[in-house]
Design a protein that fits this description.
Elements (H helix, E strand, L loop, with lengths): L1 H8 L13 E7 L3 H16 L1 H5 L1 E7 L3 H12 L11 E4 L1 H9 L12 H4 L4 H6 L1 E2 L4 E2 L1 E2 L6 E6 H11 L9 H15 L5 E3 L2 H12 L4 E4 L2 E4 L3 H9 L2 H5 L10 H6 L5 E5 L9 E3 L5 E3 L2 E4 L10 E3 L4 E4 L4 H14 L2 H11 L11 H10 L7 H15 L1 E3 L7 H28 L4 H8 L2 H18 L2
Parallel strand pairs: 1-2, 1-3, 8-11, 15-17
Antiparallel strand pairs: 3-16, 4-5, 6-16, 7-11, 7-14, 9-10, 12-13
Helix pairs in contact: 2-15, 10-18, 18-19, 18-20
Amino acid sequence: MALLLLTGCGKNNDYGLSTKDIQEVRLWHYYNGVQAIAFDELVDEFNSTVGKEKGIVVVAESKSSIGDLQEAVTAAVEKRVGAEAIPSIFQCYQDVAVTLDEQDVLVNLDNYIDEKVKAEYYQPYIDEGTFGTDNGWKIFPTAKSTEILMVNKVAWDAFAEATGVTYEDMSTWEGLAEVAEKYYEYSGGKAFFGRDAMANYMLVGSNQLGSEVFTVDSGKATVQFDKEIAKKLWDNYYMPYVKGYYLANERFRSDDMKLGGIIAMVCSSTGASYFPTEVSLEDGSIQETEAIVLPIPNFEGKDICVVQQGAGMAVAKTSAREEYASVIFLEWLTQSDKNLSFAVDSGYLPVKNEDCSVEKLENYLSSAEIDLDTVEQQAIRVSFEQIENGTTYTARGFSNGYDARNILEYSLSDAAKADRETVLAYMDEGMSMEDAVAELNTNEKFDTWYLDTKSRLEELCK
């Protein structure tokens, strides 16, 4: 009888929560700027309402960056000297979560959330957070993002008037490269475009072209880095880059944009808030900008496919009382009004089925009497349109997945950047750009890069 009572109470009891004995829920995130402000406001609202009623107080702390956050969590799990105790909740990507799950760190959220509630969330987000030997739900989606194309409209308008280019010309990666070439000629040798997150280009592009880079079965990854697809990726990034049409000098492309290095960029939808309001030109003058948000390019002749990204919230195994309190906060945080409010303020996408549409966004903005067409709202609208008209893709997590992603992040971009320097050196010696590029545009150059990248990925997946 006792066993039946224990297993039967499950999702229907309060696990001892009481206003007389406050349960603290420590939460680590990596939000900064407007995102951190918006999130902290929600935490304060929870603490003064539902938290106060149930005896829960959430203490949120920003670890500044995803790298710092992951390092802090790893140190806590390994109980390193001087490390903090592991928090109740922490932001986490799937590739890191898989490793933590193997160490028996993460709570299976199915133990606390029934199927009816679970079904309210956008299924691809649930799928992304479901893994492990028990196939349990380990990452709670709270805010997601995708990628968008952002353009400096002030610079674009002058360029478009002079050359006749249109936004539609940039709807494919092939078309974008052609536009960038025209801008290079129009501007007297300036780069047009740059992108953040090269791993997304490699992973989503490969999937769109017909083959995933990795297939994952029971946490084991197999490399399927198709050579023909890799050549397509190479031709549409490496070649424009070494010719000077693309650029990636600063840490983020918004920084390159601010310094006048480029006038178009692919970034996360959450990066919209970092789009510069002014640009520093070479002559020392400052030019105000205006942002235009467009769909990310796709490969010619292929259906729309955009990345599905953004860390979710993982709950650490502690006590049933603390775990349950953590889940109460996460469910509250993703209620429609809270989640849409955070989305509008930060550029993230809400996570429930009923909220994932342009129509719902417009209704919310209208009911909340928000009529400002901010760049963040542009980003959300375009993101919703891409998701509604196409498919989303996210790579499955696996052991060493974080390191494998880093190879994809830097392998192609580092090769392009190094060889652009070589082209410039040849040009300084009097060689034309066409001849300098021809020195590098060889099958041998591509084969060396391809085999090296494939070998490094396979080594990680052994």
